[in-house]
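=== Structure Prediction Worksheet ===
Name of assembly: unnamed complex
Input type: mixed (protein and possibly other molecules)
Chain count: two
Listed entries:
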Amino acid sequence: MSIAKLLQRPFSVKRIPGFASIAIFTFFALYAPVIILVVYSFNQGTSLAIWEGFSLVWYQQALQNEAVQSAGLRSLFLASVAATIATTVATMAALATTRKKPFKGQTAVYTLINQPLMVPEIVTAVALLIFFAIIKVATGYQGMGYLIVAHTAFCIPFAYLPIRARLQGMDLSLERAAADLYATPWMTFKRITLPLMAPGIMAGFMLAFVISLDDVVISEFVKTPGQETLPTYMLGQLRRVVTPEVNAISSVLLAISIVFVALFFFLNSRRN
Amino acid sequence: MTTASSSPTRLTAEEVEELARKKDTKNRWLLASPALIIITLFAAGPLLIVVLYSFLTAGDYGNVKWIFSTKGWFSVFLQYDIFDDTLQIADAHLSIFWRSIKLSLLTTVLTAAFGIPTAYFIATRPLSQRNLWLFLITVPFWTNLLVRTIAVMELIRGEGVINNVLLWANVIDQPIQMMFTDFAIAFGMTYVYLPLMVLPVYASIEKLDFRLVEASYDLYANRWKCFRRVILPLVKPGMIAGSILVFVPSLGAYITPRVLGGGKNLMFGNLIELQFGQGRNWPLGAALSISLMVLVMVALLYYVKVSGGDDNEHR
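=== Predicted Assembly ===
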């Protein structure tokens, strides 16, 4: 065994000297800062540099901070509503643009749906700032509606892409069989198509939810004063003295993202 | 005299098919329409208003006056001297454009330097391990950008981890000022955008036929020659795709330069924001936004051309 290994070692066509070391370093560098951030969120002292023992004091402080509470609830509400609407309309759009012969204008539909991915976020943010400033003057409405529609719009492509990918992997034979057995189109959709595409819809919803939860730039420009989301609250805090409270909030956001992304991967990998 | 061809109730097979196709097209447009309406109203459409605003006059307290003016576009590159009203090139803006391009290129090079070996490493793992390694690359990408930027900040702050370790090891006796420098921005953007380089490069290495590599070795190529003449040309499309995917968001970056660069080291995105905040020059901000968008669109169109259209989604 060891001799075989020794014999194998000297030359492998796939090996490029140094690449593995760089790769391992890259993985280390990718995770080390985040891990340090999480570790220091459990630090007892105010310092971000000196370890003074384990404690949950910063999590307690963040939880009791009313600004954090309201920003957190607002973020969750916003992400739930925006992701739900985005996933619903993205599912419809995906059904319209897959599995049959492309219809006239389908490329245009595809391009428009993916448009939010192509424009820099800061440009979209500025455009919405101007647009909503006009609407605010005209109607006087100041509520959450602006954030909801803005988030819904940029979440649509993120919900659409996984759903589309799922649908492309499904052929029409089961639906045809259902139709042969006298199922109505609606029944076919409810009993066959929807259950089959459900993992894609869930994956799309999760991606949209995470994207909405993480958004800073567009929220920062669209929100009316007092409508802080968790990320915009944190961005505001960075201007002042940074305390480990920010680390604690960051760690929670990090945990939520990781859970959702892991679920997304799980749903996506069960494709067939 | 027969009524068969003119009767509305009796159609030829082609006509029936044509009608069915039209109905199908109409239904599918209807099905797609809610998504299209939302995006048109709240993402694509407002961009047209930005174009309009770039040709208006700046209001005294922000916003605009509805008077046509090209001053917004004019001040992208030029300015009047405050003392004698002579025309000058806007040095401040030029230096910000230059910093944006310089730092975005630097970020692209750095992500390539670390990303290509990483992608190669993942693509040469056994199949059963590959998904795990890919997962590890993708997770940071989907976690909050601000959180990752804060993580970088904690690393390079005056009292941050790097300085503490160096002080403790007696390499330095005073903390190095790393925050609020161009270095900090490039470091942060490299960290944040690395997965965007790894994923497309991985996709093209995965397709690489290693029999070609073997053949080159059989023909007496050494490692370097094989890498340069066989692997690199075959992986090039992925590298170009990755470079554009990193360069584009770097050019439009806003959060990372704001947090790590501070108030002095502005990039394109921060200059735009400034016009809508303290600068109170919405037309200039609008003109800058359109310029940035056009730059990004050109790069992305090139990407679509190189990667061959919409079937190359890497997510």
